[in-house]
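Supplementary Note 2. Why include the ligand at all?

Several targets in our set were suspected to adopt different conformations when bound, so apo predictions alone were not considered sufficient. For every target with a known small-molecule partner we therefore ran a joint prediction. The input for PRP is given below.
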Amino acid sequence: MESSLELSEPRLCSNEGTISVTRRDSSTLPDGIERVLLTEDDIQARVRELGAELSAHYGCRKPLLVGVLTGAYVFMADLCRAMDIELDVEFMAVSSYGIATETSGVVRILKDLDTAIEGKEVLIVEDIIDSGLTLKYLLDVLRRRNPKDIRVVALLKKIRPDVPPLQVDYLGFEIPDEFVVGCGLDAGRRFRNLPYVAVVRTA
Ligand code: PRP
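The joint prediction is reproduced in token form.
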């Protein structure tokens, strides 16, 4: 597997707004949203960069993009349209057993791939990496199916020093450890369709 060190660095998004974060008037935000963390322009520009990097890497080798339902559907749709190469798309759904927002550390497959991946170049497409549990499980499961190569692209990764390093070959943004929604991410089945990434109001 090639090193990812030469690839572009993820954009760092801090609470202080080191990138072009729009602090919209809170009256224009949906009820339940505290503030915008990443604007639609920030996200679309980064997705175009990732699409170009991935297109350059895969060329004519036709990767299989595996989106992780449900959250990754928006990023998958944007990313695959930013890739000007031939590719294939599938989705998997997994679920963590656990109580409310606390993960139990156990993951199970709710929807598996429709095709075999042996000998294929697989790209896992995730919307967010939080505890890393979902990605670790998927990598373990898919590696056992003998693909030629597995890479990972994630739109967001939370900055969590407590989480052990995981394989993430292409990353959109590192973000603070806050409850975020939009671009596929939900809170109680709301906000997946917001075109920006926002922090949920907690108080
Ligand atoms: C989210 C997200 C990732 C996973 C990341 O999915 O889409 O797949 O959590 O969290 P982790 O790194 O702690 O494992 P979620 O389980 O909320 O399901 P959803 O995509 O259907 O909303």
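Residues 21 and 38 are 6 Å apart (CA to CA). The longest helix spans residues 40-58. Comparable summaries for the other entries are listed in the accompanying table.
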